[in-house]
């Protein structure tokens, strides 16, 4: 299938079939795909946590606002986290990168200060979400990105140290009656000529 058709067909799934679990092979492929996500200067300031354990998934569902039911029903919950300590990033990630990368960081990022550096790191994790959603769609896996979570509660439940949860995604197989499928609810997007220009 052409990627344009994949883009037309993918959607944020609102109702999952709780009886359909993704195979271990599929999940392993997704872990490798996330590891291969691109990032500025190859900084990779992230951690991805795949959760299938029903007890932990349920605990996280209760601190995920309107996403509770999706998390309960879906096969896996994937939590996207970012390094929350600049010193840790510089010691563990930056130190392994080539000089051109450290030069870019020192000249263009470090001057932004702690909040700016953390913001820059978060951008990289968001990019991995786009990569992940596209990969899921190309593999015929249903998914839902979710900012509607309580990061502090996630951090406690997942016992994060040095990372903070940013957002999550659920993956699995849709309930065939899911109202949000493009066949039932056509996608809303702003007109092409408003969002794209050719010069
Ligand atoms: C970063 C991000 C956060 C989102 N958070 C949620 C969420 O918490 N719950 C939800 O049901 N959908 C969430 N969505 C889905 C969007 O509402 C959806 O992508 C948008 O309406 C476009 O619809 P489509 O994905 O079906 O094409 C989120 C999407 C993105 C990219």
Automatic annotation (TrEMBL):
<keyword id="KW-0521">NADP</keyword>
<protein>
    <submittedName>
        <fullName>Nitroreductase family protein</fullName>
    </submittedName>
</protein>
<dbReference type="InterPro" id="IPR033878">
    <property type="entry name" value="NfsB-like"/>
</dbReference>
<keyword id="KW-0285">Flavoprotein</keyword>
<keyword id="KW-0560">Oxidoreductase</keyword>
<keyword id="KW-0288">FMN</keyword>
<dbReference type="InterPro" id="IPR000415">
    <property type="entry name" value="Nitroreductase-like"/>
</dbReference>
<comment type="similarity">
    <text>Belongs to the nitroreductase family.</text>
</comment>
<feature type="domain" description="Nitroreductase">
    <location>
        <begin position="8"/>
        <end position="172"/>
    </location>
</feature>
<dbReference type="InterPro" id="IPR029479">
    <property type="entry name" value="Nitroreductase"/>
</dbReference>
<dbReference type="Pfam" id="PF00881">
    <property type="entry name" value="Nitroreductase"/>
</dbReference>
């Amino acid at each position: 299938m052409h990627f344009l058709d994949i883009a037309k067909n993918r959607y944020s799934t609102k109702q999952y079939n709780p009886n359909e679990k993704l195979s271990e092979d599929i999940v392993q492929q997704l872990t490798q795909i996330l590891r291969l996500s691109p990032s500025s200067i190859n900084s990779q300031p992230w951690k991805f946590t795949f959760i299938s354990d029903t007890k932990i998934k349920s605990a996280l569902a209760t601190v995920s606002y309107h996403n509770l039911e999706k998390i309960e029903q879906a096969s896996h919950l994937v939590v996207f986290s970012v390094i929350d300590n600049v010193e840790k990033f510089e010691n563990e990630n930056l130190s392994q990168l080539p000089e051109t990368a450290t030069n870019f960081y020192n000249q263009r990022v470090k001057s932004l200060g702690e909040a700016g550096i953390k913001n820059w790191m978060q951008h990289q994790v968001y990019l991995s979400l786009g990569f992940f959603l596209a990969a899921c769609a190309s593999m015929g896996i249903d998914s839902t990105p979710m900012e509607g979570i309580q990061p502090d509660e996630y951090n406690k439940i997942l016992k994060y140290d040095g990372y903070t949860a940013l957002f999550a995604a659920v993956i699995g197989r849709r309930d065939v009656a899911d109202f949000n499928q493009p066949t039932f609810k056509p996608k809303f997007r702003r007109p092409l000529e408003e969002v794209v220009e050719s010069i």
